[in-house]
């Protein structure tokens, strides 16, 4: 009897402790609206998650519960890429409930926030990214996946009432590596847990994501074949040069000889000029080039700037990051968001990532197991991105379909945002292809950051995906 009483007391104590554990992370709504000059009515939690068992590694997170009936809606973890870039971009520039007006430091409410249909977590990962901190150890895709799993477990310890909800992973760019590798960690973790302790992972959604070894690996960067196809097909280089690219493609995919380096250089020169003066936006080939430079930055506006990992390319060329720097480097905002002294000065993409070990296999090899575990996959692509272009994504999806003999459930077709177009209500928003277990879609005239360029479209397809609805 006594033992039972003790256990019950212990259980209820630890339970109430758990439920209360997130209260200190709640952001003061009055202050938030004052500092950001908005009228946000929802909740926001801001704080840290333990990314290792000891808690010496702490990952910063933002959590926005869904606007209404949050406990009846799915929960999505969002990861931006890099490696090294902050997921606050996702919250403040892409799909959060308040976002920057283009090219400014002013917030506005986002009608198309993903919090309309889901609970949104944004996690800064791994160590040294954004406000996340920990020991300065060597990092890799493998270690990142392990940290992310621990952070996720800690999230559900803090917010146990969200644990049973359908859970989705979403990511962009190098998130194309983070998301499948974390998925694999979750599959392995779940296989060792009792049913009520498992993470309820239902699906993953990746936008312009690094996947195939021919996309974002160091090997691939020496001859970026899919980028060259993207700029060739869009006439950013001459026909002669594009023919030259195609004539060496096979050979350069295998061995990077001098001719491959030479042709890469010619492509870059044709796009931005020999003197590199042209500010072409690689993230959205037809988009404007924002030139705001944070204090102390030696930003280069080069088309292939981020690929160089040099000191003079510390923020993505042409990206609209003014608002992020303005707010996230201010002490007022650090206080508002409970940022600890241990957290570094915020940067959009950490430059401490020179030693990060990327898996030369990318994440392509993980899809077989992911699909076998019936985790639904949405791969979407803004079709005017020249960083992780649609050409590469279509290349590997085609390869995957052949390799795994995936059935085509519904063939390539246009998709629509019904009746919403001003000029022509039937203008398509892109194209979609449903394979067994994997949907691929393009978003017409969107760049690397789809929810930034096409807010309404992004909200619509993501809501459909989590609700398991397909386009006609
Ligand atoms: C939330 O609920 C309010 C009040 O019922 C409603 O006006 C609003 O449209 C709802 N918002 C969403 C995103 O469901």
From TrEMBL:
Keywords linked to the UniProt accession: Signal
Coiled coil (residue ranges): none
Keyword presence, Methyltransferase: no
Signal sequence coordinates: 1-16
Protein's UniProt keywords contain Signal: yes
InterPro entries documented for this protein: Peptidase_S10 (IPR001563)
One family name in Pfam for this protein: Peptidase_S10
Molecular-function GO term, any one: serine-type carboxypeptidase activity
Superkingdom of the organism of origin: Eukaryota
GO biological process: proteolysis
Name assigned to this protein: Serine carboxypeptidase
Organism: Paramecium pentaurelia
């Amino acid at each position: 009897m006594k033992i039972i009483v003790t256990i019950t007391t212990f259980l209820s104590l630890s339970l109430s402790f758990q439920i209360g554990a997130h209260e200190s992370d709640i952001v003061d709504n009055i202050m938030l609206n004052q500092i950001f000059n908005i009228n946000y009515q929802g909740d926001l939690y801001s704080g840290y998650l333990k990314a290792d068992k000891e808690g010496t590694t702490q990952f910063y997170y933002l959590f926005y519960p869904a606007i209404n009936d949050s406990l009846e809606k799915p929960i999505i973890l969002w990861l931006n890429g890099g490696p090294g870039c902050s997921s606050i971009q996702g919250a403040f520039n892409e799909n959060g409930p308040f976002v920057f007006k283009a090219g400014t430091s002013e917030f506005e409410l986002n009608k198309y926030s993903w919090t309309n249909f889901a609970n949104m977590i944004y996690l800064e990962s791994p160590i040294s990214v954004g406000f996340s901190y920990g020991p300065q150890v060597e990092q890799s895709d493998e270690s990142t996946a392990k940290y992310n799993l621990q952070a996720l477990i800690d999230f559900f310890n803090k917010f146990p009432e969200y644990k049973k909800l359908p859970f989705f992973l979403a990511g962009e760019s190098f998130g194309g590596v983070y998301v499948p590798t974390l998925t694999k960690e979750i599959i392995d973790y779940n296989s060792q847990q009792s049913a009520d302790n498992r993470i309820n992972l239902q699906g993953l959604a990746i936008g312009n994501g690094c996947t195939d070894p021919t996309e974002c690996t160091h090997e691939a960067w020496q001859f970026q074949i899919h980028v060259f196809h993207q700029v060739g097909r869009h006439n950013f280089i001459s026909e002669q040069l594009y023919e030259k690219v195609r004539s060496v493609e096979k050979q350069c995919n295998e061995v990077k000889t001098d001719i491959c380096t030479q042709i890469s250089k010619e492509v870059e020169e044709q796009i931005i000029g020999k003197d590199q003066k042209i500010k072409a936006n690689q993230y959205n080939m037809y988009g404007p080039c924002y030139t705001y430079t944070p204090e102390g930055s030696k930003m280069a506006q080069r088309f292939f700037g981020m690929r160089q990992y040099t000191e003079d390319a510390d923020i993505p060329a042409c990206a609209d990051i003014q608002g992020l720097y303005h707010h996230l480097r201010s002490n007022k905002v650090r206080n508002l968001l409970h940022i600890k002294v241990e957290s570094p000065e915020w940067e959009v993409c950490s430059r401490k990532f020179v030693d990060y070990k990327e898996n030369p296999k990318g994440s392509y090899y993980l899809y077989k197991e992911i699909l076998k575990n019936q985790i639904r996959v949405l791969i979407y692509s803004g079709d005017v991105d020249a960083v992780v272009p649609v050409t590469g994504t279509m290349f590997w999806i085609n390869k995957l379909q052949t390799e795994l003999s995936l059935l085509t459930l519904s063939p390539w077709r246009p998709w629509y945002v019904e009746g919403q177009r001003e000029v022509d209500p039937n203008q398509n928003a892109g194209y979609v292809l449903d394979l067994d277990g994997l949907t691929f879609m393009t978003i017409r005239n969107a760049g690397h950051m789809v929810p930034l360029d096409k807010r309404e479209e992004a909200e619509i397809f993501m809501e459909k995906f989590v609700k398991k609805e397909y386009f006609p």
